[in-house]
Amino acid sequence: MAGNALGRMRALGLAALWTFWALLTLTAPAAAQQATYIGEKACLGCHGQENLHFGDTLHAKLFRQNPRNEREQQVCEACHGPGSLHAKDKGNKTLIVGFTRQWGSPIEQQNGMCLACHQGGNRLHWPGSTHAGNQLSCADCHNPMDRVSLKGALVKPTINETCQNCHRQQRVEFNKRSHMPLPEGKMSCVDCHNPHGSTTRPLLKAESVNALCTSCHAEKRGPLLWEHAPVRESCLNCHQPHGSNHDKLLVSARPQLCQQCHSPSVGHPGQFYNASQTAAAAQLGGTASQRTIGRSCQNCHSQVHGSNHPAGARLQR
Fold first, then answer.
1. What pTM was estimated for this model as a whole?
2. Cα→Cα distances 60→56, 87, 113, 117, Å
3. Are residues 110 and 191 in the same domain?
4. How crowded is residue 209: how many other Cβ atoms within 10 Å of its Cβ?
5. pLDDT profile of the chain (317 residues), mean per 10
6. What's the Cα-to-Cα distance from 25 to each of 19, 30, 189, rounded to whole Å?
7. Which runs of consecutive H residues, i.e. helices, occur in 38-145?
8. Is 232 part of a structural domain of the chain?
9. Which range of residues forms the domain containing residue 231?
10. What total number of domains does the chain contain?
């Protein structure tokens, strides 16, 4: 009896599964069921202007001259999908994949077409990344239909211009008095960030801020005999990553920066020094203090990132 009941339950489960599959088939979009490939020539019959720009791109040269598979042989339809229904009903935007915000194709569908070829590598962490979570499509940063940039098929001539198209605050910071040498062309945003995703929230190309900074500033890496606690914790405790109006990309001027933490009960006082001790006041007969002029605290505590000297407990040597 138990065996017969189990058999009936299995039969009912199979029947329900077939019914569900039939409903999916009946309600599937017509484009997915009937659209077929019509070839590049049929596309060029209407899209001649687009071809004038596309012909010089890397995608066009690869697809036309050295396709790796049957999909790339389709050229236009390799990315936009089969176009037979689109050719019959050009006003229906659901019949083909468009890569603009105005076209209205779902972001997941657009990115899925790109990731079908461009998956893995530095795009391994794209799912769940900050850019993916904010519903960015590949076409927001890349334009494979026109050779705007020398490499990367970007929407702007350079990587920095492409990033700053959205990141306006960082563009302002790079124009401050002290900044990373990005405006001078000595580095780009992708030297520190992976826009396609990483294991960190700000898309860093390292596991932590310090690991990223010390990949260039190796002399600050350590290990050191006498370490400076805020340096060990994070470089961002004292420095702005993009630009600052204070020296050395500092978050505030010295000695105020140091005195945010240091107010010792022994040794020299840690209170803020007044205007009569500045270099400007010295020209009027005042007495300049070495704790407020020049590099301020670093006039004496020169090894502010840490010291390997046996007598460097105060970071003085």
1. 0.79
2. 7, 21, 16, 15
3. yes
4. 19
5. 48 45 41 78 93 93 93 94 93 92 93 92 91 95 94 95 96 96 95 95 94 94 92 95 96 87 69 66 72 78 94 92
6. 10, 10, 46
7. 40-44, 48-54, 58-65, 70-73, 76-80, 84-88, 107-115, 130-133, 138-141
8. yes
9. 212-265+274-307
10. 3
